[in-house]
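does this look right to u?? adenosine-5'-diphosphate version
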Amino acid sequence: MKILLAASEVVPFAKTGGLADVAGALPLALEGLGQEVAVSLPRYKAISDSKFKLQRLKEDISYSVIGNKIKVYFIENDNYFNRDGLYGDKNADYKDNLTRFSYYSKRTLELLKEINFKPDIIHCHDWQSALIPVYLKTIYNDDPFYKNIKTALTVHNIGYQGIFAKEEFPKLGLDWSLFNIEGLEFYGKLNILKGGIEFCDIINTVSPTYSKEIQTKEFGFGLEGVLNKRRERVFGILNGLDYSIWNPEGDKFIAKNYSLGSIEDKYKNKEDLQKVCKLPAKLDVPLFGIVSRLAQQKGFDILADCFDTICKMDLQLVILGTGDLKYHLILQNMVRKYPKVVSLHLKFDDPLAHKIYAGSDMFLMPSKYEPCGLGQMIAFKYGTIPLVFKTGGLTDTVSQENGFIFDTYDKNELIKTIKKAIVAFKNKKKWRMLQTLAMQCNFSWEESAKKYLQLYAKAKS
Ligand code: ADP
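got this back:
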């Protein structure tokens, strides 16, 4: 199959979140399955010629090669993309984001014809490339080159939809007849993600459960009705995990490498973590790790409500993260009160994250909603047992067999589950069983890519 992946951020070129990881890893996995893949993204300022060995194709198009022969095309336009940020600066989103990403979408489609690359599928991601299905079925509809090209749209987080004022609609170059309830209109405003959902051939999100949740009022951010209308075409595929980065057997950041066969060595990492974090060196006290954005979405509202209770339990807690100032302050206060229990690191620190995954006994991730979630998957691989709220991708990956899961979003349920986990930890045999099942979980990109191929086949049917 010929596939074009269109995304506004792709690892290693540009990244602000999980979308970039998916858009970087999926093409490689698809190529590994024998598919012909190309990628298109805007050329931001940080994508330098020298760092990425760019080659020139046209005056406004350069490219780089990843994997064996995947061409990554960069759409250039100094006015729109030669800026430090991808979507905005630290104060606000860029005011011309609609024009920027509609330009990117159109230019991507034109490029395909210019280089005579006719994909079977264009795989779009989030609102920034969601105009591609719209343009394909409107202004490019009568051009024979584009006939039979199908589109898939992945929604990574329905909270971000690309909503603009009605007055901006003419910038898209589309007929006003499309500004209606069956098209891009959304409560009197312009909604780009909605347009993509209406016009693409198939839709998916990054876990099966989240694909159902976003069809409900609670999680749909207003798009539940539109998705529900197309429910026969809405699917969920879990993201994969890059095991070349996340594997305790070869991890360069941890004190002692280990695997399921040498799991006793995990405890050398616990000792190391306790030392690094200046916590008492006690192997028999359960150590809980958190590596997370400090945001309400990640469960910090209920955590904040019960930190005092948690810190009085027989446990240790290592927290790495940055985010809302409110949670920074609450957590700093906790450290002052319980210096022998809590170790806090308010920063982004990849090496320390690896140490926490390896050295903790449990990984705390009580997210209120979670489209997919990577933390729990990483924790599994390190024999660190996740404790999560039953939502989205956490529902699809964590069960009583490999972790601890509570199903009412409430601080008392969280406390109860932590207590249960501490009791289980004391039972060495049971704990080893949990670790074995956790470490045997496989969330490789190859598995996800196979599911994407099935999705593309459905888009064509
Ligand atoms: P998100 O909603 O933030 O994308 P995920 O669980 O999908 O949540 O992925 C978060 C990723 O970022 C994980 O790999 C996690 O280890 C990493 N991460 C989050 N915060 C930090 C931090 N402060 N330092 C290092 N890594 C972090």
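The mean pLDDT is 97. idk if thats expected tbh
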